[in-house]
Amino acid sequence: MKVIVSKEIEQVCPDFVGACVEAKVVNSCYNSELWKEIHAISERFRAELTTETLKDVSGIAATRRVYRACGKDPSRYRPASEALIRRILQGKKLYQIDTLVDLINLASIVYGYSIGGFDADKMVGEQLTLGIGKADEPYEGIGRGLINIEGLPVYRDEIGGVGTPTSDHERTKITAQTTHLLVLINGYDGKEDSVRANALYIQELLRKYAGSDGGRFFVYK
Protein backbone atom coordinates (compact mmCIF):
# COMPACT_ATOMS: atom_id res chain seq x y z
CA MET A 1 0.00 0.00 0.00
CA LYS A 2 1.34 3.43 -0.97
CA VAL A 3 0.51 6.42 1.25
CA ILE A 4 0.47 9.98 -0.13
CA VAL A 5 0.37 13.14 2.00
CA SER A 6 -1.63 15.81 0.16
CA LYS A 7 -0.55 19.43 -0.26
CA GLU A 8 -3.49 20.57 1.89
CA ILE A 9 -2.04 18.61 4.83
CA GLU A 10 1.46 19.89 4.07
CA GLN A 11 0.12 23.44 4.29
CA VAL A 12 -1.29 23.01 7.81
CA CYS A 13 1.42 20.63 9.03
CA PRO A 14 4.64 20.83 6.99
CA ASP A 15 6.48 18.64 9.52
CA PHE A 16 4.01 15.73 9.39
CA VAL A 17 5.54 12.27 9.45
CA GLY A 18 3.60 9.01 9.44
CA ALA A 19 4.36 5.31 9.53
CA CYS A 20 2.51 2.39 7.99
CA VAL A 21 2.75 -1.09 9.53
CA GLU A 22 1.46 -4.00 7.47
CA ALA A 23 1.35 -7.57 8.79
CA LYS A 24 -0.32 -10.95 8.59
CA VAL A 25 -2.04 -11.57 11.92
CA VAL A 26 -4.30 -13.86 13.91
CA ASN A 27 -6.96 -12.00 15.91
CA SER A 28 -8.56 -13.19 19.14
CA CYS A 29 -11.38 -12.02 21.35
CA TYR A 30 -9.26 -11.30 24.43
CA ASN A 31 -5.66 -11.67 25.59
CA SER A 32 -5.08 -11.56 29.34
CA GLU A 33 -1.34 -10.87 29.08
CA LEU A 34 -1.98 -7.89 26.80
CA TRP A 35 -4.45 -6.52 29.31
CA LYS A 36 -1.89 -6.83 32.10
CA GLU A 37 0.28 -4.46 30.05
CA ILE A 38 -2.65 -2.11 29.47
CA HIS A 39 -3.47 -2.00 33.19
CA ALA A 40 0.18 -1.34 34.10
CA ILE A 41 0.42 1.55 31.64
CA SER A 42 -2.89 2.91 32.89
CA GLU A 43 -1.60 3.00 36.48
CA ARG A 44 1.57 4.78 35.35
CA PHE A 45 -0.38 7.42 33.46
CA ARG A 46 -2.70 8.07 36.40
CA ALA A 47 0.40 8.79 38.47
CA GLU A 48 2.07 11.01 35.88
CA LEU A 49 -0.69 12.95 34.08
CA THR A 50 -3.85 14.95 34.64
CA THR A 51 -6.58 15.81 32.15
CA GLU A 52 -4.94 19.24 31.80
CA THR A 53 -1.30 18.16 31.37
CA LEU A 54 -2.51 15.49 28.94
CA LYS A 55 -3.00 18.25 26.36
CA ASP A 56 0.75 18.96 26.49
CA VAL A 57 1.76 15.47 25.33
CA SER A 58 3.64 16.11 22.08
CA GLY A 59 1.57 13.99 19.69
CA ILE A 60 -1.72 15.09 21.22
CA ALA A 61 -0.84 18.80 21.33
CA ALA A 62 0.26 18.71 17.68
CA THR A 63 -2.88 16.91 16.53
CA ARG A 64 -5.03 19.45 18.35
CA ARG A 65 -3.15 22.27 16.60
CA VAL A 66 -3.77 20.69 13.22
CA TYR A 67 -7.48 20.27 14.01
CA ARG A 68 -7.72 23.98 14.75
CA ALA A 69 -5.76 24.85 11.61
CA CYS A 70 -8.22 22.74 9.58
CA GLY A 71 -11.19 24.43 11.26
CA LYS A 72 -12.20 21.65 13.70
CA ASP A 73 -12.72 21.96 17.46
CA PRO A 74 -10.41 19.37 19.08
CA SER A 75 -12.43 19.41 22.30
CA ARG A 76 -15.57 18.35 20.43
CA TYR A 77 -13.89 15.92 18.04
CA ARG A 78 -11.12 14.57 20.26
CA PRO A 79 -8.16 12.77 18.74
CA ALA A 80 -8.40 9.08 19.64
CA SER A 81 -5.16 9.06 21.64
CA GLU A 82 -6.41 11.91 23.82
CA ALA A 83 -9.81 10.28 24.29
CA LEU A 84 -8.23 6.98 25.38
CA ILE A 85 -5.87 8.55 27.92
CA ARG A 86 -8.59 10.86 29.18
CA ARG A 87 -10.75 7.82 30.01
CA ILE A 88 -7.88 6.37 32.01
CA LEU A 89 -7.33 9.60 33.94
CA GLN A 90 -11.05 9.86 34.69
CA GLY A 91 -10.98 6.38 36.24
CA LYS A 92 -13.13 4.87 33.49
CA LYS A 93 -12.51 1.43 32.01
CA LEU A 94 -11.08 1.24 28.52
CA TYR A 95 -13.28 -0.50 26.00
CA GLN A 96 -12.23 -4.10 25.37
CA ILE A 97 -12.85 -4.87 21.69
CA ASP A 98 -10.53 -7.62 20.44
CA THR A 99 -6.79 -8.26 20.59
CA LEU A 100 -5.81 -6.30 17.48
CA VAL A 101 -7.84 -3.23 18.40
CA ASP A 102 -6.74 -3.46 22.04
CA LEU A 103 -3.03 -3.59 21.18
CA ILE A 104 -3.36 -0.67 18.75
CA ASN A 105 -5.06 1.30 21.52
CA LEU A 106 -2.19 0.43 23.85
CA ALA A 107 0.35 1.65 21.30
CA SER A 108 -1.63 4.89 20.91
CA ILE A 109 -1.71 5.43 24.67
CA VAL A 110 2.02 4.78 25.15
CA TYR A 111 3.18 7.18 22.42
CA GLY A 112 0.31 9.69 22.32
CA TYR A 113 -0.27 9.36 18.57
CA SER A 114 -3.67 8.74 17.04
CA ILE A 115 -3.34 5.43 15.22
CA GLY A 116 -5.66 3.94 12.62
CA GLY A 117 -6.06 0.17 12.46
CA PHE A 118 -7.66 -1.40 9.38
CA ASP A 119 -8.45 -4.68 7.69
CA ALA A 120 -6.19 -4.21 4.67
CA ASP A 121 -8.23 -6.64 2.57
CA LYS A 122 -11.18 -4.24 2.78
CA MET A 123 -9.24 -1.36 1.26
CA VAL A 124 -10.01 -0.48 -2.37
CA GLY A 125 -6.99 0.19 -4.57
CA GLU A 126 -3.27 0.29 -3.84
CA GLN A 127 -2.99 3.85 -2.55
CA LEU A 128 -4.16 5.91 0.43
CA THR A 129 -4.12 9.70 0.39
CA LEU A 130 -4.12 11.83 3.53
CA GLY A 131 -6.23 14.93 2.97
CA ILE A 132 -8.84 17.05 4.76
CA GLY A 133 -12.53 16.19 5.04
CA LYS A 134 -15.00 18.15 2.93
CA ALA A 135 -18.44 19.54 3.73
CA ASP A 136 -21.14 16.84 3.55
CA GLU A 137 -18.57 14.11 2.82
CA PRO A 138 -20.24 10.82 3.88
CA TYR A 139 -18.38 9.04 6.67
CA GLU A 140 -19.58 6.35 9.08
CA GLY A 141 -17.41 6.22 12.17
CA ILE A 142 -17.06 2.90 14.00
CA GLY A 143 -19.87 2.75 16.55
CA ARG A 144 -20.69 6.41 15.91
CA GLY A 145 -22.90 6.38 12.83
CA LEU A 146 -22.54 9.25 10.36
CA ILE A 147 -20.08 11.89 11.58
CA ASN A 148 -19.12 15.28 10.22
CA ILE A 149 -15.50 15.01 9.02
CA GLU A 150 -15.35 18.46 7.44
CA GLY A 151 -12.02 19.91 8.61
CA LEU A 152 -10.67 16.60 9.92
CA PRO A 153 -7.54 14.99 8.49
CA VAL A 154 -8.76 11.90 6.60
CA TYR A 155 -7.19 8.99 4.76
CA ARG A 156 -9.04 8.02 1.57
CA ASP A 157 -8.77 4.96 -0.62
CA GLU A 158 -10.24 4.79 -4.14
CA ILE A 159 -13.84 5.07 -2.98
CA GLY A 160 -13.67 7.34 0.07
CA GLY A 161 -12.58 7.96 3.62
CA VAL A 162 -11.27 5.13 5.76
CA GLY A 163 -9.70 6.84 8.77
CA THR A 164 -9.44 10.06 10.77
CA PRO A 165 -7.57 10.72 14.05
CA THR A 166 -10.99 10.78 15.76
CA SER A 167 -12.58 7.63 14.33
CA ASP A 168 -11.93 4.98 11.69
CA HIS A 169 -14.62 3.97 9.18
CA GLU A 170 -16.98 1.03 9.54
CA ARG A 171 -16.18 -0.16 6.01
CA THR A 172 -12.56 -1.09 6.74
CA LYS A 173 -12.75 -1.93 10.43
CA ILE A 174 -10.95 -4.82 12.10
CA THR A 175 -13.05 -7.90 12.90
CA ALA A 176 -12.47 -11.35 14.36
CA GLN A 177 -11.82 -12.55 10.79
CA THR A 178 -9.08 -9.99 10.03
CA THR A 179 -5.83 -11.63 8.91
CA HIS A 180 -4.19 -8.76 6.98
CA LEU A 181 -3.62 -5.73 9.20
CA LEU A 182 -2.75 -2.19 8.16
CA VAL A 183 -1.82 0.36 10.83
CA LEU A 184 -1.26 4.09 10.25
CA ILE A 185 0.58 6.22 12.84
CA ASN A 186 -0.01 9.98 12.63
CA GLY A 187 2.95 12.06 13.78
CA TYR A 188 1.68 15.61 13.50
CA ASP A 189 4.51 16.69 15.82
CA GLY A 190 7.08 15.78 13.15
CA LYS A 191 9.14 13.59 15.51
CA GLU A 192 10.28 10.85 13.16
CA ASP A 193 12.26 8.98 15.84
CA SER A 194 9.13 8.70 18.01
CA VAL A 195 6.98 7.62 15.06
CA ARG A 196 9.52 4.92 14.16
CA ALA A 197 9.67 3.77 17.78
CA ASN A 198 5.87 3.56 17.84
CA ALA A 199 5.93 1.39 14.70
CA LEU A 200 8.57 -0.91 16.20
CA TYR A 201 6.48 -1.18 19.38
CA ILE A 202 3.43 -2.20 17.35
CA GLN A 203 5.50 -4.87 15.62
CA GLU A 204 6.61 -6.13 19.03
CA LEU A 205 2.99 -6.31 20.24
CA LEU A 206 1.94 -8.15 17.08
CA ARG A 207 4.66 -10.75 17.64
CA LYS A 208 3.67 -11.20 21.28
CA TYR A 209 -0.10 -11.25 20.96
CA ALA A 210 -1.26 -11.66 17.34
CA GLY A 211 0.58 -14.68 15.97
CA SER A 212 2.58 -12.45 13.64
CA ASP A 213 6.19 -12.03 12.59
CA GLY A 214 5.64 -8.29 12.97
CA GLY A 215 5.32 -7.62 9.26
CA ARG A 216 7.02 -4.56 7.83
CA PHE A 217 6.74 -0.81 8.17
CA PHE A 218 7.71 2.29 6.24
CA VAL A 219 7.74 5.99 7.03
CA TYR A 220 5.99 8.57 4.84
CA LYS A 221 5.99 12.36 4.79
Automatic annotation (TrEMBL):
Source organism superkingdom: Bacteria
GO MF annotation: an example: RNA binding
Coiled coil: none
Pfam families linked: B3_4 (PF03483)
Domain B3/B4 tRNA-binding: 62-211
SUPFAM superfamilies in the cross-refs: PheT/TilS domain (SSF56037)
Name of the protein: B3/4 domain-containing protein
Organism of this sequence: Segatella oris C735
